[in-house]
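User: Hey, my collaborator sent me this sequence without any context and asked if I could get a structure. I don't really work with proteins. Can you help?
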Amino acid sequence: MNISIKTFEELTTIELHSLLQLRSEVFVVEQDCVYQDIDGKDLKALHVIGEKDGKVVAYTRCFDAGIYFKEASIGRVVVDMDARKYGFGHDIMKASIDAIQSRFNTEEIKLSAQTYLISFYESHGFTAIGEGYLEDGIPHVAMLKS
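Assistant: No problem. I've predicted the 3D structure and written it out in structure-token form, which is a compact way to encode the shape of the chain:
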């Protein structure tokens, strides 16, 4: 998988279409969750895109501290269903953490994790904090890496 990291302005229209399509396929269709994915925050995000054979198969969006949370953050972590068996989720998370550390100069990163993925995020150094909550009808927990 080839990983690229881009600001919103650096995205091509094809890349934007592909990452929005992947997010919709997983978060709206697969998870049967109707929510406003295009929330205006993509404009301020650093986009971490994983491509395999010309197709976007993994993605995250990252934010500097103070934009989404008080801490820097990672969100919209998504891997194409057919590509999950290759460990691309771990690859895109490592690239996202590295991008935040190098571009935003911080080790403290927060995310909102679907609870069934807690151990996945723990494997990347995140720790659950606070009580669980529902986000768009799906159980989540805040997690912090410092």
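In plain terms: The first strand starts at residue 2 and ends at 7. You can pass these tokens on to your collaborator as they are.
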